[in-house]
């Protein structure tokens, strides 16, 4: 099947060599050489000698035995979360998902980003309780076993920290792999009990309008959430990618609030206090709030706006000469489905529409792909997401004009990767 691309298939639809989005889907069209199909990970100086393809050594002995719980190949040991430098003895900090190492839309559970304010509590599910109280007719206490008996539903959803990509606010562009800059976002299949079922069972008072959700970690992390959103589509998450929620992601139960910033997805959930006003907790006043140029503060900005990111090529990877490449990336929006992703190879002067890979789901990662005939000259790669509400991901200068320089949270500007003639990739503001 391997064959050269016919030159008429390589007609650019945008500047810098961006090709029509359907190019790779045409029957028989493959990359010019098998080698270019390999990843752009920086090559080893002296790659090991290849095994004889007709007689590799591993066909001559029985393989390893069965395992109770599988782990990735030992050759993939470098694919790990990038643990942030601001770890404290109290367990406050983050670890980033290595987005540039992953494909598709699901983040393996062991690579889901982490944001803990007080470390990961070791909760025994047999003695953990969830309490719903306050402005309700019947305060309820659930065991985990009780919750496991309720009707459930599953959804593929991203969770993104409100502080993700905040290095974008820096004066100078930060030089890090894509995931160690934008990887406080991950996507998983979450399965649990619709919260409306439990709230209705408790009988919410008509005067109620807010719920204070509290976790069972050492800081009793809490946030105030509008009752309407919790009744609409929130759930008590019990399973993550088919297995029980991982300890670092909230075992045995976490709140799942689709499309809303990470902090609202309270882990190790232990209490839902139904009230008629927000509690003005530390996490919604001192943090996850930003001062605007007008002097007013932006608060309770729950929805994560549309965003996209090119994961390949990206900083730390290397292009191997002029050829046809697949630009790959992720897009997501807290407001619904991604409707369009455009890519540019000339810093935003011209754009080509990328292929959106099925499935495209609401409040979930969407994988985009775009064929690119790189001519070996310096290029500026960008991606721009549009969601089904019509919202378009802004350029960095537009975002800064709107929010000023005091921002720290909710950075969703277009990201620009500069490709050098020698194939190195760096982060630039352009
Ligand atoms: N109880 C509790 N819930 C929490 C946190 C926490 O520290 N404690 N961190 C919040 C923040 S700021 C984010 S971004 C998400 C991170 O979820 P993850 O660690 O599963 O990725 O959890 C939220 N829920
Ligand atoms: Mo967060």
Protein model, in words:
By secondary structure, this protein is mainly beta. The protein has two domains: 1-34 and 304-430, Immunoglobulin-like, CATH 2.60.40; 129-288, Sulfite Oxidase, Chain A, domain 2. Helix content is 8%, strand content 30%. It is built from six helices and 26 strands. The chain has helices spanning 144-148, 179-182, 195-202, 227-233, 282-285, 396-403; strands at residues 12-14, 18-19, 82-83, 93-96, 114-116, 129-134, 140-143, 153-160, 185-194, 210-215, 222-226, 235-240, 243-244, 254-256, 269-275, 290-291, 297-298, 307-312, 323-332, 338-344, 352-353, 355-356, 366-374, 379-387, 416-419, 425-428. Strands 7-6-15-10-11 form a five-stranded mixed beta sheet. Strands 8, 9, 12, 13 and 14 form a five-stranded antiparallel beta sheet that branches. Helix 3 crosses helix 4 (227-233). The longest helix has 8 residues, at 195-202. The two termini are 40 Å apart. Mean pLDDT is 91; it is low at 32-38. Residues 115, 161-163, 262-263 line the site of molybdenum atom (MO).
Summarize the SSE layout with pairings.
Elements: E1 12-14, E2 18-19, E3 82-83, E4 93-96, E5 114-116, E6 129-134, E7 140-143, H1 144-148, E8 153-160, H2 179-182, E9 185-194, H3 195-202, E10 210-215, E11 222-226, H4 227-233, E12 235-240, E13 243-244, E14 254-256, E15 269-275, H5 282-285, E16 290-291, E17 297-298, E18 307-312, E19 323-332, E20 338-344, E21 352-353, E22 355-356, E23 366-374, E24 379-387, H6 396-403, E25 416-419, E26 425-428
Parallel strand pairs: 6-15
Antiparallel strand pairs: 1-2, 3-4, 4-5, 6-7, 8-9, 9-12, 10-11, 10-15, 12-13, 12-14, 16-17, 18-19, 19-23, 20-21, 20-24, 22-23, 24-25, 25-26
Helix pairs in contact: 3-4
Bound molecules: the ligand Nc1nc2c(c(=O)[nH]1)N[C@H]1C(S)=C(S)[C@@H](COP(=O)(O)O)O[C@H]1N2 and molybdenum atom.
């Amino acid at each position: 099947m391997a064959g050269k691309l016919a030159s008429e298939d390589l007609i650019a639809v945008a500047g810098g060599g961006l090709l029509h989005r359907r190019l790779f889907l045409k029957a028989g069209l493959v990359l010019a050489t098998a080698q270019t199909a390999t990843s752009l990970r920086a090559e080893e100086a002296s790659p090991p000698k290849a095994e004889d393809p007709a007689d590799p050594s591993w066909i001559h002995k029985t393989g390893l035995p069965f395992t109770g719980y599988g782990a990735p190949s030992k050759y993939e040991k470098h694919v790990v979360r990038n643990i942030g430098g601001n770890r404290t003895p109290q367990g406050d900090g983050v670890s980033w998902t290595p987005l540039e190492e992953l494909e598709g839309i699901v983040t393996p559970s062991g690579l889901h980003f982490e944001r803990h304010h007080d470390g990961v509590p070791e909760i025994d599910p047999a003695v953990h309780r969830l309490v719903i109280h306050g402005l309700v007719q019947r305060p309820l206490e659930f065991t985990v076993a009780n919750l496991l008996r309720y009707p459930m539903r599953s959804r593929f959803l991203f969770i993104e920290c409100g502080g993700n990509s905040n290095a974008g606010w820096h004066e100078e562009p930060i030089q890090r792999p894509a995931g160690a800059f934008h990887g406080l976002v991950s996507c998983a299949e979450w399965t649990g009990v619709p919260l409306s079922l439990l709230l209705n069972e408790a009988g919410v008072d008509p005067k109620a309008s807010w719920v204070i959700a509290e976790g069972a970690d050492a800081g009793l992390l809490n946030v105030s959430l509008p009752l309407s959103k919790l009744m609409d589509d929130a759930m008590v998450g019990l399973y993550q990618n088919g297995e029980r929620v991982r300890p670092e992601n909230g075992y045995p139960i976490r709140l799942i609030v689709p499309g809303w910033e990470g902090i609202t997805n309270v882990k190790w959930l232990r209490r839902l206090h139904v009230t008629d006003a927000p509690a003005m907790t530390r996490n919604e006043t001192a943090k996850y709030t930003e001062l605007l140029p007008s002097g007013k503060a932006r608060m309770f900005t729950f929805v994560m706006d549309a965003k996209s990111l090119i994961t390949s090529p990206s900083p730390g990877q290397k292009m191997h000469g002029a050829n046809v490449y697949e630009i790959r990336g992720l897009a997501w929006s807290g407001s619904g489905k991604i409707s369009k992703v455009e890519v540019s190879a000339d810093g935003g002067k011209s754009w080509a529409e990328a292929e959106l890979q099925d499935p495209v789901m609401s409040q979930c990662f969407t994988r985009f792909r775009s064929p690119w005939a790189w001519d070996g000259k310096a290029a500026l790669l960008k991606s721009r997401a549009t969601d089904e509400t019509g919202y378009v991901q802004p350029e960095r200068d537009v975002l800064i004009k709107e929010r000023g320089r005091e921002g720290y949270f909710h950075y969703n500007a277009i990201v620009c990767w500069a490709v050098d003639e020698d194939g190195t990739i760096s982060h630039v503001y352009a």
